[in-house]
Amino acid sequence: MSAETDLIKLYSTRILALAADIPRTDRLEAPEATVKKRSPLCGSTVTVDLVMRDGRVAEYGQDVKACALGQAAASVVGSAIVGCSADQIAVARDALRALLKEDGPTPPAPFDGLEVLRPAGAYKNRHASILLALDAATEAAAQIEARARA
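Below the sequence we write its predicted structure tokens.
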């Protein structure tokens, strides 16, 4: 099978549907933290706004300028993140990284929808874009928690 055919299969109907319907794309008016992440390889960016209450995500907004794979990941994250703790977000990020790099297990619920991105593991140049939303959300949650401890 050619690399082109493999790439076409990678952009499955499910991935394209997720990319076309990204939730929580409105930026927050008063975020507690805002983090912008950029993939140096492809130039994709995701900016995340976050508000946490009682250690859990209460409000989430994102601006996604990424390839379909990065958009699909941001779509799953946007659907799942409200109500999650900073630890849950970090675990999901680490699990997604392991899924892509080592064919690791599916990220735990509520981020198990990221399983759809498993075929992208073969495309190392796409990993950074796929990880942007969770990288940014993890950093934003950590910033909020650090301020709360201070």
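The chain has a mean pLDDT of 93.
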